[in-house]
Design brief:
- The chain has about 350 residues and is of the alpha/beta class.
- The chain has two domains: about 5-135 and about 305-335, Alpha-Beta Complex (Quinone Oxidoreductase, Chain A, domain 1), CATH 3.90.180; about 155-280, NAD(P)-binding Rossmann-like Domain (Rossmann fold, 3-Layer(aba) Sandwich), CATH 3.40.50.720.
- It contains nine helices and 19 strands.
- The strands form five sheets. Strands 3, 5, 6, 10, 11, 18 and 19 form a seven-stranded mixed sheet that branches.
- It is globular and about 60 Å long.
- Keywords: Oxidoreductase.
Length: about 350
């Protein structure tokens, strides 16, 4: 079958990948759409650093991830699909049923995250394996391209849930990439009445407004904290220095939720947070219930993800799409449609 794989830091097209075979409890699906995630871009450029960091951690399933960077790597974890066939002794939805799933494959050898792997095929392929118990049917009539954005929307919902933000509190979102957009959408559906978004890109600021931000700010014109006194701050940038700058500028008693994934060492002055009693919450991924809730919000029209989709490519265009996503004014989310 056809697939796009990471090889020597670049995405390349293949037409000779063997079709996956479903085992007990697994389902073979035909991929309908898969979003390109910023974490995929980062892994392509800095895979050695990502693996070194995850393997140095203790107490995390991801620390046991083993990937050979010298071999082809499968990726793609924001997907929608249609059921093709089930593995032995496996009950599942009928063939043709549109589904999505949290990106995890249950296998005889254990839990295999569908993120980056030499063996577990992801959404940048014609077909992939999913776990029957984890399948979530996509409601009738929902565009499968929109359903593919369930995963990033769930990341935003998880960040908002962890923040404990209340409707009357001002929320400031720093960074309007896909995760920042997902946070804005989740804040709006949660009833927050004052959502402020900050980004250097005018295109991203305009998009933040369409996703639900009440006000947008350009950091090039001055720190957002000069005009906004937020109770909750969402950091969705993921570069060194941001957390420390927030601690220095944030109001007394505010809450900081760190959703941006920074893979580099960073320096923080604890005194800033101590002196102002700032609560800091780091967040990652989501709970299964948040994944399902995000799909329902998209299906019911409470979150319109259509504006986020700024491009669509086939499997032979994934490499070029990775390069195009480096320009924040040109793209937000590119979908791969095999």
């Amino acid at each position: 079958m056809r697939a796009a794989v990471l090889r020597d830091g670049r995405m390349v097209y293949r037409d000779d990948v063997p079709d996956p075979t479903p085992g007990p409890g697994q389902v073979l699906v035909e991929v309908a759409a898969c979003g390109i995630c910023g974490s995929d871009l980062h892994f392509a450029a800095h895979g050695d650093q990502v693996l070194a960091a995850t393997q140095s951690m203790s107490g995390s399933p991801s620390s046991r991830t083993s990937v050979d960077l010298g071999a082809d790597i499968f990726m793609g974890h924001e997907f929608s699909a249609r059921v093709l066939e089930a593995g032995p002794d496996t009950d599942t939805f009928p063939s043709g049923t549109p589904v999505t799933s949290i990106p995890v494959l249950l296998a005889a050898k254990g839990i295999e995250p569908i993120v980056y792997s030499n063996t577990t095929v992801g959404g940048y392929a014609e077909k992939m394996l999913l776990s029957a118990p984890l399948l979530v049917p996509i409601p009738n009539g929902l565009d499968l391209r929109h359903a593919a954005l369930t995963e990033p929307m769930a990341v935003g919902l998880h960040a908002v849930n962890k923040s404990g933000v209340l409707p009357g509190e001002t929320a400031l979102v720093l960074g309007c990439g896909p995760i920042g957009m997902a946070i804005i959408a989740a804040l709006r559906t949660s009833g927050v009445e004052d959502i402020v978004a900050a980004d250097y890109s005018r295109a991203r600021r305009d998009l933040a407004t369409s996703m639900g931000a009440h006000r947008v700010l350009d950091p090039a014109q001055g720190s957002p904290f000069d005009t906004v006194k937020p109770k909750v701050i969402f950091e969705a940038v993921g570069v060194p220095g941001i957390i420390d700058d927030v601690l220095r500028r944030a109001p007394v008693g505010s809450r900081l939720v760190v959703a941006g994934v920074c893979m580099e060492p960073d320096t923080v002055h604890p005194f800033y947070g101590i002196a102002k009693e700032i609560s800091v919450q780091f967040v990652l991924a989501y709970e299964p219930a948040e994944f399902t809730a995000s799909l329902q919000a998209i299906a019911e029209g409470r979150i319109d993800v259509a504006p986020l989709i700024t491009g669509e490519v086939g499997l032979d265009g994934v490499g070029a799409a990775f390069e195009d996503l480096a320009d924040p004014d040109r793209h937000c989310k590119i979908l791969v449609t095999p």
